Amino acid sequence: MRKSDPGRFLLSALLVVLLGCGGGQVREDAKSTEPAEQQPAATAEPAAAKKAEADKSGEIPERSTIEAKYKWTPEELYADRAAWEKDVEALKALLGKGATFKGKLGKGAKVVKECLDTLDRAYYTLEKLWVYAHMKRDEDTRIDDYGAMTGRCQTLEGEYGKVGAFVDPELLALPPKKLQRYAKDKLLKDYDRRLSELIRRREHILDPASEALLASLMPIAWSGMTIYRAFTGAELPFPEVEIEGAPVKLSQQRYVQYRVHSDRDVRRQVFETFWNTYKSFRKSCAAMLNAQTQAHVQYARAHNYDSAIEAKFDRDALPPKVFETLVASIHEGLPEFHRYLKLRKQLLGVEELEYLDIYPPMTGKSGAEYKLEDAKKLIVEALAPLGEEYLKPFNEAIKEGSGWIDYWPNAGKRSGAYCTSGAYDKHPYVLLNHAEDYNGMSTIAHELGHAMHSYFSNRNQPHPKADYVTFMAEIASTVNETLLVEYILEKI
Q: Smallest Cα–Cα separation from 294: which of 222, 242, 231?
């Protein structure tokens, strides 16, 4: 393992910015008609030609022009829509069985295990349905049918919460010593963490009727985010701009691509056009944000928390002080950040540093290009300290045609990048909108960090214990980014 220290890490971060690596994708790590058939190999050459033509013309390519080897394969989860619908019915049956345990959880650990196993199997099925639906939706948010499938999943999640709402209140109604015995019973070892957390969070658990009501309202609670994703992914009307004499249709992905452009006039045109498009709908966007914020606030109040922040952190068994410390640390670091901004202004030679000057290389030149296959090779070399056990599934994930990763932007595709790991007995899946620069390479390393975390967790933990909190999740991804930075700097 290479030696590292805080000073070198800060130097690494600064040099990465100097090299033009400061404009990465927005990352979001998810937990998640008939489906389109995977294109046969025979269509690869025409597809590649069409994509290249679209890229050259400034148009965003249609998904059909992208070769299958660069796409993920949700068909591994469900071969067709009929198979998905079959699992919907299986989920409903499991929920029906789960409801029969109401009033029986005081009859011993065996009954509790059967109840929790049934509901866990239901949640496993729900996750799988969710993952498939949102993968298909995110491929092309313009396709209404897949949006409807995710809507059904929201409703099913509400039904799951409503059916299982009796469990926690009923367990908490038991004599405390009996519940503690359940938490230590070897028969319930897969649920010991859940039961211990239930005891800890006793004061925030409501009566069964209240919990069932709140669970049934989940689809409404998430409507703000649902509307925002549909609007920005499928309906937000970005105009064309002319860049270097050629028309370019702006999009979320094109914005990320051109905000690092070395020509300040190009950046200004892109920034003003992109953000003015959002500004035209600022009231609608504010209403969506407010709806989502109010949902968090009202759920926190309903569960006897003083704030939404406290509610969020308590679910991860963390005190709000952690958040306060993070904010305080950022404020303590502001003087160094301001020094960096002054240096950026000086090196770019501008009278006033604007937002549009944050992303381009400080040298004023275009950043380094990293072709996809070269980027993969560099990442693998950088992650060598993690060992063969880590690299074996990593190499499987990035292998051409593996089905793990959806690489390229296409018309209607959800912006940003994320990893979804909700399909417990399958491998994780990663969505990218890849650009062949340092940030694109770093994003692959980041998202595959999440993928490897989930891969090993799913293979070493039973389903009830395989999930992990966000604070843990981001360690796996940022370690990969740090190793990549260190490795690139050593090669310079």
A: 222
